[in-house]
Amino acid sequence: MFRKYIFVFTVVFQICLSYSAVVKTKRVCVVGAGIAGISAARYLKEAGIDFTVYESTQYVGGTWRFDPRVGTDENGLPLHTSMYKTLRTNLPKPTMELKGFPLPEHLPSFPSWRDYYQYLQDYSKHFNILDHIKFLHNVLLIRRVGDVWRVKHQHVQTNETFEDEYDYIIIGNGHFSKPNMPNIPGEDRFKGKIIHSHDYKEPEPFRNRRVLIVGAGPSGMDIGLDVAEVSKTLVHSHHSKINFSTPFPPHYHKKPDIQEFNETGAIFKDGSYEEIDDVIYCTGFQYDIPFLDESSGLTLSPKSIVPLYRYMVNINQPSMILMGLIVRACLVVALDAQARYATALVKGNFTLPPHEEMMQEWQKRMNAIRSKGLPSSYIHILAEKEDQYYAELSEESGIQRVPPVMFKIRTQDMQAKLDNLYTYRNYVYTVIDDENFVRHEEEPAVRRGLTL
Ligand SMILES: Cc1cc2nc3c(=O)[nH]c(=O)nc-3n(C[C@H](O)[C@H](O)[C@H](O)COP(=O)(O)OP(=O)(O)OC[C@H]3O[C@@H](n4cnc5c(N)ncnc54)[C@H](O)[C@@H]3O)c2cc1C
Ligand SMILES: *[C@@H]1O[C@H](CO)[C@@H](O)[C@H](O)[C@H]1NC(C)=O
Ligand SMILES: *[C@@H]1O[C@H](CO)[C@@H](O)[C@H](O)[C@H]1NC(C)=O
Ligand SMILES: *[C@@H]1O[C@H](CO)[C@@H](O)[C@H](O)[C@H]1NC(C)=O
Ligand SMILES: *[C@@H]1O[C@H](CO)[C@@H](O)[C@H](O)[C@H]1NC(C)=O
């Protein structure tokens, strides 16, 4: 009787073994628990896929958590977040929402970082993904060995290191963390303080000071106006060709690029000079994936990561996805779509084109950029191609399409920013259907209720 049970058990056990050898469970490693990582986690979980998220801090939400400190955190890691106290989103609510999880009704049209960070925490709880995240685990190295990925990670408090094997890698380590410094002559002679926007926390330290802002990207414009509220003067050095029709205050002075610094100030390319107390470099960030080596098959530089298919699939090792490297798009909506595409890929819902084909397509895009004499960083720009991108993702993978209304909202919001950077956040955008939205002005009472 007993022997019979043993026999049955052994047979069942062997069947299980051979089954798992044929239909090997796919294991997915996700790096980072920012929007990229948590949205990947949500869809991987829904699809019943075996996955682990490694996050070097003890938080979800990545850059959306404000931290008053500068430099390193309590575990000696460089502070990842670039958030500042006064920040409100620079895109309206519908374009900041992850699929099927609306931002609370009572929040203003452009929520504060605090409310948005809360939203990301709520999202992680709602979709029950916290158990899948190994917090305080810093990924040190991801190597391709044979037909698997070896992931070396370290507990940032005990220093214990681990190595695990995975079939797929989804990277969501963010790319607004490592400052891009312009290296302007005379910096070391300059007696004032120079910081990068990564370390900008709040306007107060700049009260009654003569402040120089360098760069006119989203950070330069937003931090510039933030500082101008309290500073004595606001000198803005940039070479943007954009016509800002914002009514800048009288103490705002536009300048061309900086020629050099001396002890007391900056000399600009037009020969003019300004005395300056503090400088904030809003000169952008560098791509930085320090945990990849040459076995990834990628060419990594501060300006670009190539070659990628659909702006995210590593063409030379297509079991690796790099999320959120795109610029000039509704990033949150795009990340959500990329997470669904990645999940559909792992699930086997579709297969990628052959290597040759992906390479050719990428090469064609790269050649177009080079022939226009543009820098390689343009390979990551979506801009007017954003809606087309969503259409292509869906066509290929079968995921639900990001509706065209998102791009339409972004387009109108972009115009509102060109018109007036002080007022673009006063508009509420309400989605009617996949194609249409309406815009109206927000009640001042809603704005007064902002929790900054
Ligand atoms: C100041 C600022 C304002 C912004 N405003 C907007 C806005 O209004 N609207 C908008 O759509 N976008 C905005 N963005 C863009 C923003 O980056 C995205 O909204 C989004 O946060 C990107 O998410 P992510 O997951 O790709 O990266 P992140 O949020 O940067 O998250 C990356 C995570 O990976 C972790 N990590 C990194 N390396 C490792 C490692 N080796 N091992 C383990 N974990 C690691 C980090 O700790 C972090 O938690 C803003 C960005 C900044 C910096
Ligand atoms: C971990 O390593 C850091 C840096 O080398 C060191 O300062 C720290 O004391 C170590 N912690 C432990 C628990 O060993
Ligand atoms: C910006 O405005 C100036 C003056 O109004 C005009 O000459 C120029 O063509 C405009 N540039 C762009 C890019 O629209
Ligand atoms: C810095 O350069 C300006 C312009 O040439 C000059 O007026 C100023 O005196 C210089 N400052 C110092 C400390 O040399
Ligand atoms: C994969 O395809 C199945 C069947 O069509 C579908 O139900 C599922 O949602 C798809 N998964 C993803 C992540 O697209």
UniProtKB/TrEMBL annotation:
Gene3D superfamilies (alphabetical): FAD/NAD(P)-binding domain
EC numbers: 1.-.-.-
Reported cofactor(s): FAD
N-terminal signal peptide: 1-25
Keyword match Flavoprotein: yes
Single GO molecular function: flavin adenine dinucleotide binding
Pfam families: FMO-like
Superkingdom of source: Eukaryota
Keywords (A to Z) from UniProt: FAD, Flavoprotein, Monooxygenase, NADP, Oxidoreductase, Signal
SUPFAM superfamilies, alphabetized: FAD/NAD(P)-binding domain
Transmembrane portions of the chain: none
Record bears the keyword Signal: yes
Protein family (similarity comment): Belongs to the FMO family.
Protein name, as recorded: Flavin-containing monooxygenase
Source organism phylogeny: Eukaryota, Metazoa, Ecdysozoa, Arthropoda, Hexapoda
